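In response to the reviewer comment on reproducibility (Comment 2.3), we provide here a single inverse folding case reported in full, input and output, so that an independent group could reproduce the run without further information from us. The structure tokens appear first.
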């Protein structure tokens, strides 16, 4: 049995969150040359005291051809972070994604003003 981990300090949580975001920025929507974080496809990132990650995300469209692959792509990217536990990726379409969720960086990349 693994010993229980101490709760994350605010600094540890901030550092882990930065690492999670950096990992998510390595995953791209195959049809759009912008990463899923800047596209606004990540709705929520939860980190438990046990260092498990729970990600709520969506796709640009429910019929996206990579719908089945995207959760595994996200998990693979997150597994590169040392010291994390279980990874759960929940797909949701509520609320539906729309371009207003994109960051300014994504809008610049796609020339959408």
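Designed residues, in position order:
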């Amino acid at each position: 049995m693994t010993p229980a981990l101490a709760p994350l300090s605010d600094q540890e949580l901030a550092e882990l969150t930065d690492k999670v975001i950096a990992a998510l920025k390595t995953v791209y929507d195959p049809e759009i040359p912008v990463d899923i974080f800047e596209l606004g496809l990540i709705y929520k990132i939860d980190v438990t005291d046990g260092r498990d990650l729970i990600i709520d995300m969506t796709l640009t469209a429910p019929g996206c051809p990579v719908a089945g692959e995207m959760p595994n792509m996200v998990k693979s990217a997150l597994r590169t972070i040392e010291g994390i536990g279980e990874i759960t990726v929940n797909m949701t379409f509520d609320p539906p994604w729309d371009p207003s969720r994109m960051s300014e960086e994504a809008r610049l990349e796609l020339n959408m003003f």
